[in-house]
Design brief:
By secondary structure, the chain is α+β, with helices and mostly antiparallel strands. It has helices spanning about 20-40, 70-80, and strands at about 45-50, 55-60, 65-70. Strands 1-2-3 form a three-stranded antiparallel β-sheet.
């Protein structure tokens, strides 16, 4: 449980496999957020670490911000915001 907010810690996802320590998990999470942001910017969206809340902050460039709890929810909410599915493997996101 989070000592700051009292919310139970979310179970890990497969993308965190192999993280041996809390530091490893934080570095993996930061890397994940960078990649997500690069992919979603092509669609006019941005993503950031939730900060003081668990999960991610998904935002349109117009200012609408939605809090999502996990990676699968990022894709579902991005599809809702855009009105179409987002395929992260459709094209390179360099």
């Amino acid at each position: 449980m989070c000592t700051a907010c009292g919310i139970p810690a979310a179970p890990g996802v497969w993308t965190e496999a192999g993280a041996a320590s809390a530091g490893d998990r934080l570095r993996a999470r930061a890397r994940q957020v960078r990649h997500l942001d690069r992919i979603l910017r092509r669609h006019g969206l941005t993503v950031a670490e939730g900060g003081t809340v668990p999960g991610f902050q998904l935002a349109r460039l117009t200012g609408e911000v939605v809090l999502v709890p996990d990676l699968p929810a990022v894709w579902a909410e991005a599809a809702r915001m855009l009105g179409r599915p987002v395929d992260p493997l459709a094209a390179p996101y360099v």
